[in-house]
Amino acid sequence: FTMKNLITCFLLLISALSISAQEISFVYEKNVPVELKIDGKAEHTFWIGISFYPYGVKDGRTEGFHDFREIKLGRFAETFKIDKKFYGGTYEIAFWDKKINEKDCQTEDCLYWVKKRGFALDKMTFYKTGYFNGY
Predict the structure, then answer these.
(1) Which of the four pLDDT bands, split at 50, 70 and 90, describes residue 13?
(2) How far from 71 is each of 12, 57, 124, 133, CA to CA, in Å?
(3) Considering only 43-47, 59-63, 104-108, 109-113, which range has the smallest mean pLDDT?
């Protein structure tokens, strides 16, 4: 390890420790997921981004459902409704430390999201993915 690598690892560890998702859970009705719940504590403002995709999705940008929430300092409890069309599909959950505009974009994906909603999210500190299968 170089000193730069050690500092980078330390900063990533501090960033990860400052957001605590104490529970990520799903609410089910008749074995079908209907809500995603994320509870935790934030040591600074960050954003939760979620994406839901139907089974067999070909284009995640246009066929998926994408939402985000700004989370302020302190305890938080966020709930996202899951449409039944996503049963059998997949989900993504990400925590982001920064909201950026077009001038800060360095990728095509970033520019896509800026054009779609006026900003993009950057500096991912947490990521989880999985399947909506009801079991």
Answers:
(1) very low
(2) 19, 29, 14, 28
(3) 59-63
**Mean pLDDT calculated for residue range 37-52:** 95
> What residue type is assigned to position 79 of the chain?
T
Q: Cα–Cα distance between 4 and 7 in angstroms, integer? A: 5
CA distance 18 to 46: 10
CB 46 within 8 A of CB 13: no
Residue 95 and residue 105 in contact, taking contact as beta carbons nearer than 8 Å: no
Q: How far apart are the first and last CA of the chain?
A: 43
The candidate with the shortest Cα–Cα distance to 49, out of 19, 89, 93, is 93
Contact of 49 with 121, CB cutoff 8 Å: yes
